[in-house]
Amino acid sequence: MKEEDPGVREERAGKELEGCRIALLGLGVENEALGRYLLSKGIRFSVRDRVEGDRVRSLRREWGSSVFSWLVGETYLQDLARFDLVYRTPGISSLHPELAAARRSGTEVSSQTRLFLDLCPAAILGVTGTKGKGTTASLLALALARGPYPQVRLGGNIGLPPISFVEELTRGDLAVVELSSFQLQDLHRSPAIAVVLNIGTDHLDYHADQQEYAEAKEAICRFQTSDNYLVLNADCAATRRLGEHSPAQLLYFSLAGEVEAGAFAAQGHLWLRRHGARREQICAIQEVPLKGRHNVGNALAAAAAGAAAGASAEQVAAAIRAMRGLPHRLELVGLFDGVEFYDDSLATTPTAALAALQSFESPIHLVAGGSSKGADFGELGVGVAAGGVRSMSLLGDEAERIAAASKAAGFRGEVRMCESMREAVESARSNAEEGDVVLLSPACASFGLFESYSDRGDAFKRLVTGACRRD
Questions:
Q1: Which pairs count as long-range contacts for 60-66, CB under 8 Å and 24+ apart, including other chains?
Q2: Which of 358, 336, 235 is nearest to 291 (CA)?
Q3: Structural domain range at position 82
Q4: How far, in Å, CA of 407 to CA of 384, rounded?
Q5: Helix (H) or strand (E) holding 156
Q6: Contact 454/442 with Cβ under 8 angstroms?
Q7: pLDDT 10s digits, 88-130
Q8: pTM of the complete model
Q9: Does the residue 277 lie in any domain?
Q10: Bond prior to 148 in cis (omega within 30° of 0)
């Protein structure tokens, strides 16, 4: 199937919005950016949100009569059939019963991400995965910043909705977009270059089941053509299967061995192999500045995708050496009394927390727990009991289940149930000795005690630096 000309696609998408009865469902970061874009085009809409929070009140005052109507409260998803088009915030599942009913009545359900893919004149490189997509997307943007594109923009789940910069892009540019399963659910177009890092278990409080979660991830490559590239993790069976029926040109990355085309680790180095070419050395594994074996995998994924986008091995190597960790991803908060404190608050799954534990050789005092995402903590419990963890300070709804899984696996260290992050930090700090690590890697969502993973990580950092300054 031939790809539609971007200019024609953009013009058609713009015209389809004219005269539509449109509603924005939820005023999170993405739909706020979308609302600003629509208003800049003279396109009015209605707003519906469940909670009359500060954001809604502020935008009510700012947007005023430019918005047709506001419906805020528990009934905000009722009577959606009156609209031709609704844009859901990622926090509302595309499979929500009210949205399914709206579709049956003829209402189109879309999202900021879907509109961006329709409007964007530039090439798009999309990155998804259960863990590592923010780091990989950032590394790709850094590697490609010096060409071959006039402009490279980074957005998506990393915090900047791409609709906010779509009009700054031209046909020769590149948009690197980090995409979560929430954002991929209702796509009908895939990026020209798609990267799937891994497919574990996550967000089972949101998705119907593990299969539906995996199918949401698959949307990043479902609509690709033979002109496109698909970069897959050769070490992950669920990810590798996506290449079985894909028409795209396949590239793989692996920590375990060589690949025919893509990037791999061998003999203490990272290597790049393009289709039909000899391997090229990128850099030594020890030059990857980010902690953890999983970050070596992220560097390999970026190398393979970067090559598909036109980057040289030298560009990728320079980006890897210059890369610094993102906030709340194994972020070193400080060294106090010989103890290192790390904020890994973005580790909201057991798999992510296990990867964090495996990144250290020093004894670990783990701060974990939070709200449920329907996860199984069995594998994490085995990792905790493997010997690296000396104590656990647990909080939130899942504290007891994490403790039970760890004890069942043979963990015999101290476990303390905490009522607050302050208590958890003080507990971990009191157990730590010189040369140890205090690690916040929750394995759970943040809600109930915090607004978001970043709010949780910031609280941890404030408590750590505050307590250590008082000493």
A1: 63/35, 63/39, 66/39
A2: 358
A3: 6-110
A4: 9
A5: strand 152-156
A6: no
A7: 999 898 889 999 999 999 999 999 999 999 999 999 999 999 8
A8: 0.85
A9: yes
A10: yes
